[in-house]
Design a protein that fits this description.
Elements lengths: L2 H4 L8 E6 L2 E2 L4 E2 L4 E7 L5 E7 L5 E8 L5 E8 L2 E10 L5 E8 L4 E9 L5 E6 L10 E4 L4 E4 L5 E6 L5 E7 L5 E9 L5 E8 L17 E3 L2 E9 L8 E9 L8
Length: 256
């Protein structure tokens, strides 16, 4: 997926700005933006940098660096004018991603991702999770499904790709390498997502969605999504399921 597609824009895009504001019920008007995001792109469509302007005046920035062939080799994370950490990307001789490491400002290194490939070139990527102690509920973003899922005991997230290099399944493992969460992605012939099934152990993956299960929770141009939830009543450990169905009207076209 290209950087432009991730930001849901297309064509020759130089930058994107997204603002967030609240509606004042009493005054019946929009309040001033609380914060906003900006993204800048290179002429080839790759993401150059992002800026997140916080309400307290601080600015969180990212900067991407590429090699001569256009491969992402480093992402820098800044807070105002201070470099906080860096993410480094390594590739094999075929220019396929094999490893991602994170470097803190004091030089500490931590493994972030590792990718392997089978004989047919299908990629499997393991993302290592480091939830901070006492952080409470944490959701991990499933890019292919465009939503997050909370798996409290997970320490690793494995994404398995199909022959078309599209994510087909995501597995969450605990410290004993047992599968504690699963996301199965079904696509149509053109590769568009038509269904995402979420399965987790002893708690619902989206507790708030239980209250919204009977009505649409979001609607985009040419794209509708509905939630449906059920609890497995069979004997044994409780397994909670969540299914997202995607109905497409016409060819895919992301953007404003």
């Amino acid at each position: 997926m290209s950087d432009l597609t991730k930001w849901k824009v297309h064509g020759q895009v130089l930058s994107v700005k997204t603002s967030f504001a609240e509606w004042d019920l009493a005054a019946e008007e929009w309040r001033g933006p609380g914060y906003h995001n900006e993204a800048a792109f290179l002429p080839n469509g790759k993401l150059d940098k992002t800026c997140h302007f916080n309400p307290d005046g601080t600015i969180a920035r990212t900067k991407n660096l590429y090699d001569e062939g256009g491969l992402l080799i480093e992402t820098q994370f800044w807070k105002d004018d201070s470099l906080q950490n860096r993410t480094l990307y390594t590739y094999d001789e075929a220019r396929r991603h094999v490893r991602t490491v994170s470097l803190t400002h004091d030089g500490k290194e931590r493994e972030a991702e590792a990718s392997t490939y089978d004989s047919r070139g299908r990629k499997t990527t393991v993302r290592f999770l480091y939830p901070p102690e006492g952080a409470g509920h944490i959701s991990y973003w499933i890019e292919a499904a465009d939503q997050g899922i909370g798996v409290p005991s997970a320490v690793a997230m494995t994404t398995i790709h199909d022959p078309n290099h599209l994510a087909a399944e995501v597995l969450f493992h605990d410290a004993q390498n047992a599968v504690v969460g699963r996301v199965v992605l079904t696509r149509d012939e053109s590769g568009r997502l038509v269904k995402a099934e979420f399965q987790i152990g002893d708690r619902p993956p989206f507790p708030e969605a239980q209250l919204k299960a009977k009505r649409p929770v979001c609607r985009w141009t040419n794209f509708w999504r509905k939630y449906s939830a059920r609890r497995d009543r069979s004997p044994g450990p409780r397994i909670h399921m969540m299914s997202t169905a995607c109905l497409w009207n016409g060819p895919p076209r992301w953007g404003c």
